[in-house]
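How a chain folds remains the central question behind the approach discussed here. For one protein, we set the task of working out the structure tokens from the amino acid sequence alone. The sequence in question and its structure tokens are set out directly beneath this paragraph.

_____
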Amino acid sequence: MTAYVIADIEVLEPVEYEEYKKLAGPTPAKFGGRYIVRGAPVHVVEGDWSPKRFVILEFPSLEQAKAWYDSEEYGRAKAIRHRTAKSNVIFVEGVNPA
């Protein structure tokens, strides 16, 4: 079943965060993943949630999403993100096609 990684990121150190983007960018593909949304403007239509930077990645399965997140390939980038931004990240499975 398809799985998604959804991240709400507030960049605190924009210059250093650029290095995160360079390192993280190619890593999902190695695990069958792809970017669906990557930093596009957010338009709030209900509620008070207002993400600063919004990212959605799609993976063929939850296992592949977790493997990417815990991988050495992504680990170096993730450490930079932890240092340069505040993040909320969730994994969620999609629906089975009928």
Summary: The chain has one domain: 3-93. The longest strand covers residues 3-11. Residues 20 and 79 are 9 Å apart (CA to CA). The beta strands are 3-11, 34-38, 53-59, 85-93.
